[in-house]
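Task: complex structure prediction.
Instruction: return C-alpha cells for all chains below.
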Amino acid sequence: MITSAVIDVFVMILNELLDALPVTPVPAWLADAGTYLPQVMAFASSMGVWFPWQVLGVVLSAVFGVWIASFGVKVARIIISHVTGGGGSAA
Amino acid sequence: MIQLRDRAPVLNPPAKPRPKKFTLIRRFWRRSRRYLLMAVMAFTLSFGLVAVPVVKAEADLLSAATIAEINGAMRMPLTQVAVNAIKLHPVGFALGTAASLALLAYATKDQWLPYVTGAFGEGESNTEPTPLATQQRHVVDTAVLEPDGVTVTAKYSNTTPFSQDWYAHFGVVAHCKKDAPDGSFQQGYKYSGGNWSIGGNNATNWTYTRNFVPCPLDWRVTGFIVAGGQGTQIGTWTPNLNTSDPNPAQMNALESQFSYATKNIIKWGDMGGAAGFDPRGGETTYVTSAECIDSTGALSTVTATSTGTDQMMKLPACPAGSHGTGKMWIDGYAPGTTVPERLYDVDPMNDPDHPLCSPTRPGSGCTLGVSIDGKPCIVGEVQCENWTEIRRDDATGARVSCNYGPYLVGVDKCNILERAYQIGGAPATEENIDGNPSTSNWNQPNGDPWKPQPQPEPGTGTNTSTLPMTGTNPSSNPGEDGQNCFAQGWSWNPVSWVMVPVQCSLQWAFVPPKLKVETALQSIQPRLEARGITPFVTPFMGSLSTLGGSGCSGPAIDLSVVKLPVFYPFSACAEPMSHIASGVSSFFALSLVVQGGMSCIRGVAAAFGFNWGLGSSKTEDGS
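Output:
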C-alpha cells in the first residue's frame, strides 16, 4: 500500500510534467537519432573484455541506492526533529 | 623630517564567485582522473612491453608458414600475409608495427622479408615432379588465396606431343566464410567453382590460368581443394564447364563439403608416380574418402570411386546436414588387385580461430547455443533467460535460432538449453518433475518439447452463478494477492506466528500489485510517445541489457570496401592480449569498486550529518 501510494504520486507528478510539454511532431532526424543508440551501446558492449560494464552497473546502482536511502534518512531526521522533546534540526 | 604616514592598505573588493558550469562532470573528472590516468598508463605500458615480442612472434609464425606453403605449392600474396598477421594479433600488430618498424626490419630481415619476396617470385613452389617417360602431367601449378577467392593456374605437360587433341580437367572447391561482429564466423559456407579443361592441341606443355574463383560478396576464402585429371573422351567436354558460373549439377559432382583451410592440391600426375598407376589406362581405381561430421558431432566417412576413364577425380560429398572435417585420403587400386595403396592421407589444417567440430579432437568441439536476433545468448541476459517464451510469441519464427558451433541447426536441438541462460541454470539433463507449470520440460510426452506444461483447465459448463456451488469455505479471510497472513501462523512455533505475519504485512505494505505497476506504465507510455521520448528511451533500455556481453573481439571495423576482412583492433581472444585485457578490466573494476565504496560511505555519513571528504578532493568545509 505504501509503495502503491508512492507510485501513484510519482505517476501523477510525472504525468503532469509530461502534459506540460508540448505535443509536437518529432522531427525525422531526431527520431532517427534514437536508432543509433543501439550501435553506440553495441560498440560499448563489444569492449566488455576491456571494461567491466557489469561492475559499473552494480556500482552505480549501489551508489544511487545509497543516495536515495541517505536522502530518506535525512528527510526522516528533519521530520523527527520537529517533534517536541528531541529538539534541533538535522537540516 | 618628513614622516610618512602609514596608510591603510586598500583591499580589493572580494571577487564575486562565478557560477561553475558542468559541476557534476567536473566533480567526476576531479575524483576519477587519477584512476583513469593510471589505467591509461598501465594500458600503454602493457602494449609497450608486448608489442615487440608480438611482432617478433608473428615473424616466426610466418617463417614456419613459409616452409609449409612452399612444400604445398602454395602461394600467398603480401595482402594475405598482412591479413593473417592482423587477424592473429590485431592490436599488437598495429601498434607494434607503428612503433617498432625499424627494429622489425633488422630483427626479421632473414625471415619475413625474404618470405614476402619469395611469395611473388618463381620459387620452389612451382617445381613440377619430373615426368615419367610414359606419363602425362596434370598439375596445379599455382593456387593463390586471395582475400575473397582463389586463383588457380593449371599446367599440363607431356614428354612427347600427342597426335591429337588432349584435354585435362581441373576443378576447385573454395571454402568461404563470413565473419560475425562478435568474432565468430557467421556460418560455414562452401562455394564451388572452377571446373575447367585445358588442352585442345598436341603441344607438349600448356598453361592455363583460371580466372578468379570468387566467394560470395562479403565472404572470404579460408581454403580450397583443387583436383585435376585427364579425360579420355577427347574433345567432348561441356562448354559451360569453363564459364565463370558453372552448371550447378556439374559442380555437385565435384563439390565436397570440406571445411576450412584444407589447402590441398591433388596432383593426379603425382599419383602416376606409384608403380602401376597410370591414369590413362582406365583400369586403375582411385577411392577418395572424406570424413564428415553432423550437428551432433557424429563422424562418418563417404567415398567416391574414380577410374582413369573418368573425366576427373570424383570427390565425395557429405550427406545433407553434415560437413567435412577436412580429413581426406585417397587409395589407389592397381589393375587386377584389391589391395589398396594409400596415395594421399591429408590431415586437416584446422583454422585456429574456428576449429572443426570434431569430438575426437580435444578443444575443437562445438557447443550448442541459442541466438536471438542473431546475437548469441549469454547467461543472465533477460531475453536469453526467457528465450523459449520469445520463440513461442514470435510469429515470424525467425528471431530465435540454434547453432551447433557455426552451424545452424533446428531450434529443437537447443531445447536442453531452456534454462541454461538463467543465472545458476544449466542444460537440462533429466525430465522436469518439479510440478511447476512455469518451468518447461523439453522431453514432455506431448511431443512439443518447448511448450510449457499446460495449466489445468476448468471444466466446461454453463454455470452462471457468481458463487461456488460446492466445496468448503476458507477458514479465514485471505490477504491481498490471495495470501492469508495468519492462517499459517497459529502454531507453537514463534518463528511461524511472528515472522509470517510480519513478512505478510511488510509485503502488503511495500510490494505493489503487479497490476498497479502495469497501469502506471500504461498511463505514462502514451505521453512519452506523443512527445518523442520513447524513440530514445526504448533503444537505450533495450541496449542496456547488451552491456557486458560476451565476446573477446571488441568492436569490428568493416574493411570490405577495400576487400579486406573485418578488422578487430581490440581483439583479446588470444595471448597475450587476453591477459592484458583481463588485467585492464580488473584494474577498472577495482577502481570502480573503490570509488563507489567511498561514494557510498560519504553518502551514508552525509545522511547523519557528517561531511566526510573520503576519496574526494573537496575538503570537509566543502571548498
